[in-house]
């Protein structure tokens, strides 16, 4: 089973669309697997950075990104998004795996080039509680740029940067 998260509760079919930030990429329907769905427990435009501890993480990167925590996953968002995250309700659309192909194993992304009809939908709220129940550490910061720069200037590979174009400028 694959999923798509939306703030819209009334999507009857998913029509392949081009990504705004990737005009060279063909129109597709995006879906995510269960293991990675937590990365979408946020308002659509919320900038966030996900750090995931892997078995082969170097001591240097472990100290840099996971110092003083037992969490294997840390999600960092800007503080001004706190109220929106707390108040946000989302809709989790369920898809059969048929017609989807794996696009990015690390992120859990799947794509379909065809129109997709969901087989179910459920309302999802209490997003922070959902993250906590999965053992994910949620951090708030005034600005994501320092963390992003630390990641991009390291050899750390266990990260995802989402909607960064919405982050506050330095």
Give structural attributes.
single chain; 170 residues; alpha+beta; 4-stranded mixed beta sheet; 3-stranded antiparallel beta sheet; 4 helices
Main sheet summary:
4 strands, mixed
Count up the domains: 1
For the termini, the CA-CA separation is 40 Å
What series of H and E elements makes up the topology? EEEHEHEEEEHEHE
Mean pLDDT: 95
Helix content: 10-25%
Note the total helix count. 4
Strand order of the largest sheet: 9-4-3-10
Strand content: 25-35%
Secondary-structure blueprint:
Layout: E1 2-6, E2 29-32, E3 48-52, H1 59-66, E4 73-78, H2 82-87, E5 90-95, E6 101-104, E7 109-112, E8 120-124, H3 127-133, E9 137-141, H4 145-152, E10 159-162
Parallel strand pairs: 4-9
Antiparallel strand pairs: 1-5, 2-7, 3-4, 3-10, 5-8, 6-7
Can you walk me through this structure?
The protein is built from four helices and ten strands. The radius of gyration is 16 Å and the shape is globular. It is α+β, with helices and mostly antiparallel strands and 170 residues long. The strands form three sheets. It has a four-stranded mixed beta sheet, sandwiched between helices. Strands 1-5-8 form a three-stranded antiparallel beta sheet, with no helix packed on it. A three-stranded antiparallel beta sheet has the order 2-7-6, with no helix packed on it. The mean pLDDT is 95. It is 17% helix and 28% strand. The protein has one domain.
């Amino acid at each position: 089973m694959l999923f798509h998260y939306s703030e819209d509760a009334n999507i009857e079919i998913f029509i392949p669309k081009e990504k705004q930030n990737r005009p060279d990429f063909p129109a597709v329907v995006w879906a995510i697997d269960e293991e990675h769905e937590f990365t979408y427990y946020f308002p659509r435009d919320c900038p966030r950075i996900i750090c995931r501890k892997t078995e082969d993480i170097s001591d240097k990167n472990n100290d840099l990104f996971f110092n003083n925590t037992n969490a294997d996953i840390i999600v960092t968002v800007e503080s001004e998004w706190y109220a929106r995250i707390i108040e946000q309700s989302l809709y989790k659309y369920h898809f059969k795996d048929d017609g989807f192909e794996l696009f990015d194993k690390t992120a859990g992304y799947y794509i379909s080039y065809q129109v997709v009809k969901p087989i179910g939908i459920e309302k999802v709220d209490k997003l922070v509680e959902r993250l906590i129940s999965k053992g994910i550490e949620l951090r708030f910061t005034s600005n994501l740029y320092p963390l992003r720069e630390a990641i991009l200037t390291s050899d750390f590979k266990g990260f995802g940067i989402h909607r960064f174009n919405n982050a506050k400028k330095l």
